[in-house]
Design goal:
The chain is of the alpha+beta class. The chain is globular. Residues 126-132 have low confidence and may be disordered. 27% of the residues are buried. The chain has five helices and four strands. Helix 3 packs across helix 4 (88-98) and helix 4 (88-98) packs across helix 5.
Length: 132
């Protein structure tokens, strides 16, 4: 019996979700937090990180299973000091890079528009490398 060839690319273990926990059981299970508004959350080297709107940060620290909670509103405000058009995608890229994460898996129900903005941001970040 012949063995199938394995990909030489490393497996992407970290996951990124963007959903409303009240409507998405995966995110509700992942963060153990119930909210009526959507927010991004991701894993980073086995840790669960939530980027929550400022109004939810305190409650999330008390009630959630996240290992780290970042203030999404404050992150976007800080990013807008150098990029007036910064939004959720920029905040996700910034937070991921702070954790040393450069690639994510996303679920099938991940928002397409956000996915496209993340791809654009990643391409823009990668394009800052010196040409070979």
């Amino acid at each position: 019996m012949a063995r199938s060839a394995r990909s030489s690319a490393p497996a992407v273990r970290d996951v990124l979700m963007m959903a409303t926990p009240s409507k998405n059981a995966d995110l509700r299970w992942f963060g153990g937090f119930h909210a009526s508004d959507p927010f991004p959350a991701f894993s980073a080297k086995g840790r669960r990180i939530g980027l929550l709107p400022g109004m939810e940060v305190g409650r999330a620290k008390d009630e959630s299973a996240f290992d780290e909670i970042l203030n999404l509103s404050a992150t976007i405000t800080d990013l807008r000091k150098t990029n007036p058009k910064a939004g959720v995608a920029d905040a996700i890229v910034f937070a991921a890079l702070q954790q040393g994460i450069h690639r994510f898996r996303v679920p099938a129900d991940f928002p397409v528009g956000l996915y496209e903005r993340l791809i654009t941001n990643a391409a823009r970040l990668n394009s800052s490398r010196p040409a070979k």
